[in-house]
Amino acid sequence: MGMTGIEIYKLLPQTNCGDCGVPTCLAFAMKLAAGQAELAKCPHVSEASKAKLDSASAPPVMPASIGPFKTGGETVLFRHEKTFVSPTGIAVLVTDAMADADVDRRLRSYAELRYERVGVQLAADLVAVKSEKGDAAAFEKLVQKVAGAVDAGIILMSESADVLAAGLKHTAARKPLLYAATKANADAVGRLALDNKCAVAVRGANIDEVIELTQKLSAMGLKEIVIDSGARTLKKAFEDQVVIRRSAIKGAFRPLGYPTIAFPCEMAKDFMEETLIASTFIAKYAGIVVLSELRGEGLFPLLVERMNIFTDPQRPMATEQGVYPINNPDENSPVMITTNFSLTYFIVSGEIEGSRVPAWLLVMDCEGLSVLTAWAAGKFVADAIGPFVKKCGIADKVKHRSLVIPGYSAAISGELEEQLADWKITIGPREAAHIPAFLKQHQA
Predict the structure, then answer these.
(1) DSSP 260
(2) Rounded to an integer, what distance in angstroms lies between the CA atom of residue 240 and that of residue 234?
């Protein structure tokens, strides 16, 4: 960002109306300066000020939307500085030269390969539809098939504006990415993107040519741009990714301040090499990677890598607070309680499920901290647990008044009995692995 909070504040209405969701204009200006708010949240800013602030409040890497998928918006080089905000999109490639069975298999894989890990749904995001024949009718037919088969972001791939226009007949409302504007067709593809309010990808022979193309499209009024440097070897493409990101973040060089797209599918000799190359670009710094196909043994590791990289390192993963029934409990089933640290929840719930004993698990919001850490921080303590148990609704689900607390929080049992006078507090096992035996004994 090129302006300080005070400089931005001088351009705001200074009415302190709160319509932006922030109490004062100064506080809103500080959030803009830190990249934590969008100028569009202020409904009263003048057009003159908006023109000055738009570029100042924009992140170094401009955002772009492809249907429901969003990329860009990054403000740092390294995740320990500040969390990355837009997980790399994973796309599967289909072309009009493929047999129908191959296309169907790829679309089926896109729809079926979905995973849940620590409460997060993991899946691919996009389908890249490529014209290899250069036949507008064949491309339109394939795009229509893809659009009807999957609810995904779509990338339309052709060097012909006419072919891209044919694909847009069935996808314009879904705002696909048009790939690609080149030195030869930039005017036509740029106009097509403008007319349909779509993001557009540029492909250059090198970074210098990419710069010329982004400047040209930007001058046409296009803001949602994706960069393909044109490199098709791992070494060169990796170098380009680093140069582009560093130029945008460290150099504030706007012509390269856009998300990128990489094509492992065009760089590898086999599936495993393609997966390895894709993992490289997820780490540094592709906004989108395009794969030749989706297989569980390759997709799942990429999704987990992506989740790890794009999870805020300063905030633990948390499960939603609430009452969780496990193994179809009834009004006589035991009630246990733990914190909302995702790893704790999934370990505890997994052991309960494995015991096959019906039980209720209360998950209390402790800002994603584990039991011991939350207790030490004063968040998993009697005067917090008591009100939670009373308000969570578990009393309406069971006849008894018996609560099992983690063994590591045994020290709070006396205070908790005072908070929950009509409840019996039982100290459970310290280790989750001992939960099945404890529940079976408790049930007996």
Answers:
(1) B
(2) 10
pLDDT higher than 90, residue 115: yes
Residues near 376 by Cβ (< 8 Å), separated by ≥ 6? none
Weakest-pLDDT range from 56-65, 193-202, 332-341, 398-407: 56-65
Residue 124: helix, strand or coil by DSSP?
coil
Measure the N-to-C terminal CA separation of the chain; round to a whole number of Å.
64
Structure tokens belonging to residue 20: 């932006």
H or E stretch at 128: strand 126-130
- Tell me the C-alpha distance between 109 and 397, whole Å: 41
Residue 235: how many other CB atoms lie within 10 Å: 8
pLDDT at 386 over 80: yes
Q: 311-356 pLDDT, tens per residue? A: 877 776 788 899 999 999 999 999 999 999 988 999 999 999 999 9
Cβ contacts of 413-420, under 8 Å, gap ≥ 24: 415/381, 415/382, 415/383, 416/382, 416/385, 416/386, 418/382, 419/382, 419/383, 419/385, 419/386, 419/387, 420/386, 420/389, 420/390
Diameter of the chain measured on Cα atoms? 78
pLDDT, position 1: 46
- The DSSP string of 211-235 is HHHHHHHHHTT---EEEE----SHH
Question: Given the structure tokens 């939307």, which residue do they identify?
Answer: 65
Rounded CA gap, 362 and 98, in Å?
51
% of residues, the chain, pLDDT over 70: 97
Q: Give the span between the Cα atoms of 321 and 422, in whole angstroms.
A: 23
Rounded to whole angstroms, how far apart are CA atoms 176 and 286? 18
Read off the tokens for 95. 């072309």
Tokens matching residue 60: 């170094």
pLDDT band with cut points at 50, 70 and 90 for residue 56: low
User: What are the pLDDT digits (tens) for 150-203?
Assistant: 999 999 999 999 999 999 999 999 999 999 999 999 999 999 999 999 999 999
- If DSSP codes are grouped into helix, strand and coil, which group holds residue 122? strand
Tokens of 290: 């395009």
- Cis check for the bond before 180: say yes or no (omega within 30 of 0): yes
How far, in Å, CA of 393 to CA of 103, rounded?
49
Q: Which residue has the tokens 């003159």?
A: 48
